Structures are given as C-alpha cells and as structure tokens.
Amino acid sequence: MDVKALDLGEDNSLLLVDDDEPFLKRLAKAMEKRGFSVETAGSVVAGKAISTARPPAYAVIDLRLEDGNGLDVVETLRERRPDSRIVVLTGYGAIATAVAAVKIGATDYLSKPADANDIINALLQTGDELPPPPENPMSADRVRWEHIQRIYELCDRNVSETARRLNMHRRTLQRILAKRSPK
User: In its UniProt record, which GO terms are filed under biological process (predicted)?
Assistant: First the structure.
C-alpha cells in the first residue's frame, strides 16, 4: 500500500502513549510516513512529562497503562494545550471509560486493534460530520462481550452483582468471563 504524507498544517507534532512497545513502534513508523513529527511514551509519567514540556497538536493515548490511567495524560494535555486533537485507544471492557475520556477532552476513542488509517481518520475529523463507518466493525458477539465487561467493571468486578444486573445466571456469566474476547 502506498502511503502518502498528509497536509497537517504548521504543527504536525504527535504524541503516542502506549505500553505495548511493538505496537507503539509500528504506529510511530506509520505516522511518521504520513507526515507527523512523532514522540513516544510508554507510561503515564512519561506521557505527562512530554505533555507538560512540549504539548503536541495531536495525541493518541492508550487508556490502560502499566503505571496508571491514560486519562491522566489526557487531562494534562488538555490543560496545557486546549486545541490538541486527542484520540484514546481502548482495549476490552473499557468503552464506558473511553466515553468518560471524551467528556474530559478527548476528541474521539477507538477500540483496539486500530490501524493507522482509523487513527488518522479520528485525529483529523472536523465539525459535526460523522466519520466513515469502520472497515472492520465489531461483531455482534464482540459488542455483547464488551457490554458484559462494562457492567462487570461498573460492579467492581463482582460476579454475583453483575449477573443480577444483567438478569443472567451467575455460572453462565462466569463461563463468559473465563473465555477470551470474540473477534
């Protein structure tokens, strides 16, 4: 696939924050090919330090990092540079938190795995027009699994309370939680 550089304007600075090093390196390389000036961070502490010292025009921040919550980086960046375009990446069971990220200042959020094109579409989206539908939307099984994970997290990972709220047998819920997420 031929990758062309985008017209990003005067400030093409991009901060990538993720603790998955192979993913971080691949994404940084893909974004550099598209014309971004990329800085990477593997932790909340490093992300906040870069956001404070050199607040970028664009940021892609993982929600769950080994040393804390990516929302802390979003807040720091939003304070230092209110016009920054921020996309939050979220893994399993964290869509409710991603919505919270949008409320505190993220431009958008994407479920992992997200490719460079999906991320660029979210970063460069302007106005109220809706972004194009994803090339690979979540399956119905995945949407169900995400919903169950969200309720489970909101119930402080209490299986009995989650089962009650979902009107589901506790053993059935335990079997679902023990399985890997569907594609």
Answer: phosphorelay signal transduction system
CB-CB neighbours of 24 under 10 Å? 19
CB 79 within 8 A of CB 104: no
Query: Look-up: residue for tokens 């994970």?
Result: 149
* 39 contacts 53 by C-beta, under 8 angstroms: no
d(CA 176, CA 179): 5
Condensed to tens digits (0 to 9), the pLDDT of residues 69-103 reads 888 999 999 999 999 999 988 775 556 676 777 78
What pTM was estimated for this model as a whole? Answer: 0.68
Q: Quick count: other Cβ atoms within 10 Å of Cβ 23?
A: 16
Q: How far apart are CA 6 and CA 18, in angstroms?
A: 23
Give yes or no: residues 25 and 98 share one domain. Answer: yes
Burial class (CB in 10 A: 0-12, 13-18, 19+), 53: exposed
Q: Cα separation of 68 and 19, whole Å?
A: 11
Report the distance separating Cα 120 and Cα 73, nearest Å: 20
Same domain, 101 and 19: yes
Specify whether 113 is located in the same domain as 75.
yes
